[in-house]
């Protein structure tokens, strides 16, 4: 079964053709990073306009690269939540238009479920149930994947997401957007023990995260040094900050794994490409005898192949939508 998938939740316009939820036939991504870099972050109105300009060409290219016609496609999967509402609407409405023209069913797909599904494209043997650490610019969750379309949130952030904290700390250090990628590279040259940064926890919620205080601690260090005319070693500060974030993520996910007696863990989302997080997760899993699955780095960021993978499982479970389908800026992964 071949599914055409469309993704437009933030600043990448993407389309892909995926077979049986496990094999990428084609995948095309049009990124807007260079334009948003001028503003230090994603500008929603600009993102929406660029999606409008790009989506026809991106979908056509994905179909051409797959060597498919619409007679070969069985469904159209599209990200409909969560994300930037204007950006989501471009993808949703284009998918509905294609559905009207081709008579193919539309499959609404939750963005975070798609990130989890990126692992299915890289690891044919991975099947639920498993615990997944979902870490991106806008989300930080520990999710119990009970089945392909049944998920339960075990832990979540109470304020900033891990990726958001990385980006804001990097910006405070003078790094260009997207800051998290630059911080990860610079941190590899630094001393992670140079600065004593907090590891915030949430009282009464042992699996939940809080990154706002950690981010503020770094910003205050930079501000205080600036007032004194001092310059902090950016390599060391980056390394110390990265270590603190990774410690918070790994501590909580392994607490959850121990309490739930989980022997399989996956990672997903843009921050799952972070080099220290990947190495620490592998080390800790090996030490505990836990199987770890991570998507290839090229599938950690937003793409449509992961939408096609999750879309397959949503479709075979009977989750389709009519032309009244709307987009939603926020939605729990449990309802997706």
Summarize, please.
By secondary structure, this protein is of the alpha/beta class.
Descriptive overview:
The protein is an alpha/beta fold and 336 residues long. The protein has two domains: 2-116 and 299-316, ATPase, nucleotide binding domain (Nucleotidyltransferase, domain 5, 2-Layer Sandwich), CATH 3.30.420.40; 128-295, 2-Layer Sandwich (Nucleotidyltransferase, domain 5). Helix content is 44%, strand content 19%. It is built from ten helices and ten strands. The protein has helices spanning 33-37, 44-66, 85-102, 111-122, 162-172, 179-187, 212-227, 234-260, 275-288, 305-316, and strands at 2-7, 12-19, 23-31, 75-81, 106-110, 130-135, 140-147, 150-156, 264-268, 291-293. The strands form two sheets. The chain has a five-stranded mixed β-sheet with strand order 3-2-1-4-5, sandwiched between helices. A five-stranded mixed β-sheet has the order 8-7-6-9-10, with helices on both faces. Helix 9 (275-288) links the parallel strand 9 (264-268) and strand 10 (291-293). It is globular, with a radius of gyration of 20 Å. The mean pLDDT is 96.
- The backbone outline, from C-alpha atoms, is globular
Order of helices and strands: EEEHHEHEHEEEHHHHEHEH
Sequence stretches where pLDDT stays below 50 over 5 or more residues: none
* Main β sheet profile: 5 strands, mixed
Helical proportion?
40-55%
Number of strands: 10
The CATH class designation of the largest domain is: Alpha Beta
User: Helical segment tally?
Assistant: 10
At the fourth CATH level, what is the homologous superfamily of the largest domain? ATPase, nucleotide binding domain
The name of the CATH topology of the largest domain is Nucleotidyltransferase, domain 5
Mean pLDDT reading: 96
Structural class, by secondary structure, is alpha/beta
Strand content: 15-25%
| CA-based gyration radius | 20 Å
Strand order of the largest sheet: 3-2-1-4-5
Q: Judging by the overall fold, what is the CATH architecture of the largest domain? A: 2-Layer Sandwich
Number of domains: 2
Q: How far from one another are the termini?
A: 22 Å
């Amino acid at each position: 079964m071949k599914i055409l998938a469309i993704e437009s939740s933030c600043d990448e316009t993407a389309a892909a053709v995926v077979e049986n939820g496990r094999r990428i036939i084609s995948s095309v991504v049009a990124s807007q990073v260079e334009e948003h870099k001028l503003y230090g972050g994603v500008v929603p109105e600009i993102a929406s306009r660029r999606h409008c300009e790009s989506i026809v060409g991106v979908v056509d290219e994905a179909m051409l690269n797959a060597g498919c016609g619409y007679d070969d496609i069985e469904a159209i999967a599209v990200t409909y939540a969560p994300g930037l509402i204007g950006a989501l609407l471009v993808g949703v409405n284009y998918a509905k238009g294609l559905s009207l023209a081709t008579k193919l069913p539309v499959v609404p797909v939750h963005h975070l479920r798609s990130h989890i599904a990126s692992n299915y494209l890289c690891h044919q043997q991975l099947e639920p149930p498993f615990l997944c650490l979902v870490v991106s610019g806008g989300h930080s969750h520990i999710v119990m994947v009970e089945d392909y379309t049944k998920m339960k949130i075990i832990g979540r952030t109470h304020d900033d997401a891990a990726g958001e904290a990385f980006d804001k700390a990097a910006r405070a250090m003078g790094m260009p957007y997207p800051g998290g990628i630059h911080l990860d590279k610079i941190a590899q040259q630094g001393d992670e023990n140079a600065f004593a940064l907090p590891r915030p926890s949430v009282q009464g919620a042992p699996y939940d995260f809080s990154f706002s205080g950690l981010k503020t601690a770094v910003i205050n260090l930079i501000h205080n040094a600036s007032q004194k005319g001092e310059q902090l070693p950016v390599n060391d500060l980056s390394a110390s900050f990265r270590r603190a974030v990774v410690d918070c993520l790994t501590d909580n996910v392994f607490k959850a794994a121990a309490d739930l007696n989980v022997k399989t863990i996956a990672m997903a989302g843009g921050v799952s490409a972070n080099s220290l997080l990947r190495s620490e997760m592998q080390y800790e899993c090996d030490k505990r005898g836990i199987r770890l699955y991570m998507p290839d780095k090229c599938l950690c960021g937003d793409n449509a192949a992961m939408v096609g993978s999750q879309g397959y499982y949503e479709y075979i479970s009977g989750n389709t939508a009519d032309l009244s389908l709307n987009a939603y800026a926020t939605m729990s992964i449990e309802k997706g």
